[in-house]
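JOB MANIFEST
job_type = single_chain_structure
chain_count = 1
residues = 327
[input]
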Amino acid sequence: MLDDGKRPLVRVRNLKMHFPIYRGVMRRQVGEVRAVDGISFDIYAGETLGLVGESGCGKSSAGRAILRLYDVTDGEISIDGNEIAHLAGDELRRLRPEMQMIFQDPQASLNPRMTVAAIIAEPLDEHQTLSRNARMERVFELMDAVGLNRNFANRYPHEFSGGQRQRIGIARALALNPKFIVCDEPIAALDVSIQAQVVNLLEDLQEKFGLTYLFISHDLSMVRHLATRVAVMYLGKVVELADSAQLYGDPKHPYTEALLSAVPEPDPTLENTRERIILEGDVPSPSDPPEGCNFCTRCPRVMDICRRESPEFKQLEDGRFVACHLM
């Protein structure tokens, strides 16, 4: 969605992911949860797009929908020029090696009955035909790349720490040489002392293999360090998309301002003088969003038009995109 002539590796247009609500003995559909409700953005080769927002805003659903782990309700998704939003079966399977995911909870995403070697080799077994020696050599290469001792290849996930388990998940994601990886809060379940190590590993791997990331997180400080550009989600919609320096230095959307005001400031002098923006009320239900702007029920600068019309997600003169009637 930038008009600089570059071709995006990942292109998302008006993506919707609605989950039906069924009730009664006959299991009739009585509504739907609009987890992702019409988001659009591009991700360019070699960059990291941060996707942030409070819990329940639809970040993880968006990431899984983009990788087609869900059947999308509507919209377009293309990865390296291949439209995948409505592919199925063998056509979708053929494109799986190009797009992979690193999950939030490394313990839940690894099969406890499989050894490390078997976990890392599983994508190779599914998509390639390798000899036993070539398969193990590839496993060892991947273990080296993520900083795991080769002698641990025959151990099981429960024998590792959280950080080591996440390295196993990263090695598995790298097995098929993907171009695009969705990192779904990959450090949220880790100790603070380990988080920086995993983030540094992701940066090193990106530089070494030319990877492109969608980095989903609610840790705004980490996203600032890692992301090239940042998209802010609220109740299923992207409300602002900008370069990292732009967004953190001069946020335009009221929700972005409120989010950033909650980030702790290391300098106690600045922290004591900083003004916090406290949002009133609760986040509306994604099954019954408000009419007009989704943020109108909590926005401190709400206007009458906000309650009637949904704002257009438009590009400003400085290149950022904002969905707000104030702009």
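[summary]
The chain has ten helices and twelve strands.
The longest strand covers residues 28-43.
exit_status = 0
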